[in-house]
Amino acid sequence: MDVEEYRAARRTRLVERAVELGLPADEAGLLVDRVIEEQRRRIRRAEDPDEVVVPALRDAILAGPRAGRRTTLVVLLALLAVVVAVPIAYVTRDDSPAVMPSLFGLTTSEATRALQRDDIASRVVEVPQCNPAGQVLGSEPPPGSAVGVDEVVTLIATSTPEWRCPDDAAARERAWTFLRFLVSGTASPGFAQGVRLFVDGEEVTVVGGAEAADTPGWQSVVRDPVLAYASRPAANPLGQPVVSISYGVPPPTTCGHPRATPAGAVLPSTRVVLTTGGESSTDACGLTIDLFDNVLGAISGVALYTPPRPGT
């Protein structure tokens, strides 16, 4: 089949497929085009090119068996962008293996310091994305793995792309800053004096805008559920949840839960979705967070939507 005819006929659906698999919508088109380019020869020979392209697209986003994790990661990086290697941060320790920690929500500098505290050597591989530069997307090996004394951990992190990005940079910056607020407490996205917290559409409590993420309200309602979700095994080559960010009016329901309606909030709002990957998983809708602003542009409402439990 002619490759360009196939692209014209199927690109829209392939982009939708990539988004369904957890890739941010503004990156899906680029990845689809690169997968098609990689599979040109096979597409021309195939009776049904979807049988070639769809598995290749899936493999580029979601990891296969653990034995193939390293190969899949290399393929993903090759498809996403030209990779830029950053010098290795060397450390020394005794001969006992270390355990790879979770680096979800951290910047490269924060992640490097965290690994150095555990005597783990690291290097950074940068992937251009329309997200704030320097955010850790994942690692090889993934969290929970044993790291040998001579092993160098690879951190996959965002960098500024050369192409034009959508006009949602402020929402993306705010979303990643909010994740850093929860995980490391090193940033604040700008809160109102009082922030209303919702879970699955119901208001739970109000916290002070100057309170830290480890204070009781924030911790029990938002921080603990997010960290628990982020610590689960991720069925993708990055080893941690994929972060998808959008800006708009939330739908009437999310993961089967009604939309939160914070008093005094204005729309549209920033939505952050964490997905661990795997279409057949019971939490395929992902853990979702809506950040609502007041008329002054400060976050006055945070709504958490939890994935359905198995059997529900």
Helices and strands in order:
Layout: H1 3-20, H2 25-38, H3 40-45, H4 50-61, H5 69-80, E1 84-89, E2 98-99, H6 108-117, E3 121-128, E4 136-140, E5 146-147, E6 152-159, H7 169-183, E7 191-199, E8 202-208, H8 216-230, E9 242-248, E10 253-254, E11 257-258, E12 266-275, E13 287-293, E14 299-305
Parallel strand pairs: 3-6, 7-14
Antiparallel strand pairs: 1-3, 2-5, 4-6, 7-8, 9-12, 10-11, 12-13, 13-14
Helix pairs in contact: 1-2, 2-4
What does this structure look like?
By secondary structure, this protein is α+β, with helices and mostly antiparallel strands. It folds into 3 domains: 3-61; 84-159, Trypsin Inhibitor V, Chain A; 169-305, Nuclear Transport Factor 2, Chain: A (Roll), CATH 3.10.450. 33% of the residues lie in helices and 26% in strands. It has 8 helices and 14 strands. It has helices at residues 3-20, 25-38, 40-45, 50-61, 69-80, 108-117, 169-183, 216-230, and strands at residues 84-89, 98-99, 121-128, 136-140, 146-147, 152-159, 191-199, 202-208, 242-248, 253-254, 257-258, 266-275, 287-293, 299-305. The strands form 4 sheets. A 6-stranded mixed beta sheet has the order 8-7-14-13-12-9, with helices on one face. Strand 7 and strand 8 form a beta hairpin. Helix 2 (25-38) crosses helix 4 (50-61). The longest helix is centred in the first third of the chain and has 18 residues, at 3-20. The protein starts with a helix and ends in a 7-residue tail after the last strand. Residues 63-85 and 279-283 have low confidence and may be disordered.
